[in-house]
Amino acid sequence: MIAPSDLAIYSAGMRVTQFGSLPIQVYLRIIYPGFFLSFKEGGGAAALGYGYLRLGWVCLLGLVVCLLMIASSFIVDDVLGPGYAEAAFIIQLASALWLVTGASYIFGDVLVSMGLESKRAWISIFASSVQIAFLFPLVFLFGPVGGVLSCYIAAGTSLLACFVMCVSQAHKIGLVRKDGHG
Questions:
Q1: Which residues contact 8 (CB under 8 A, 6 or more apart)?
Q2: Which of 32, 74, 101, 179 is at a distance of 20 to 30 A from 68, taking alpha carbons?
Q3: Predicted TM-score of the model (pTM)
């Protein structure tokens, strides 16, 4: 069972991490319509090319956000109070989530623009299953806070890997519907 004080520290660290995700979320929302326009103009290859061109920017933005969150973790006790000094570890570990999540969204958006929404949904269900399957062993190994964060990272990484494989295979074997609807 997680102690209330650990839960408060975890919550504070994750709030800072969520706040740090704002630049990536804004960028992803701005570029989202471009996937559909690219698909309409040139099919799956164009949508994938559009995604690859934006992937570098998402990774760069994710790296900047990650570094800024790590830097901010050193002053978390000054901002939130001395009782939250342990939230620095959570911020540092969780900061990597937005690198993985941003890249996952790029490939997920490629799938949707190709008319493969159901594939994106099934992959998301799979990643959630990975998270559930690994939750208790990771909590046992790393404690409640470290285990939950490790679970997020494992699920996010599996989500990214599955999206990349699915987009690659969909393009390779022609799973893409011509009308862009799945």
A1: 83, 84
A2: 32
A3: 0.77
Average pLDDT, the chain: 81
Question: In this structure, are residues 158 and 124 in contact, taking their beta carbons and an 8 Å threshold?
Answer: no
How far is Cα 125 from Cα 67, in angstroms, rounded to an integer? 30
> Are the beta carbons of 178 and 38 closer than 8 angstroms?
no
- How far out from the chain centre does Cα 71 lie? 20
| DSSP conformational letter for 174 | T
User: How many CB atoms sit inside 10 A of residue 145's CB?
Assistant: 22
User: Which amino acid would we find at residue 175?
Assistant: L
* Amino acid occupying residue 154: A
DSSP state of 165: H
Q: Which tokens hold the place of 12?
A: 């504070």
Binned at pLDDT 50, 70 and 90, residue 50 comes out as: very high
Residue 9 and residue 134: Cα distance in Å, rounded?
Answer: 22
Q: With 0-12 CB in 10 A as exposed, 13-18 as middle and 19+ as buried, what is 181?
A: exposed
Token pair belonging to 105? 């969204």
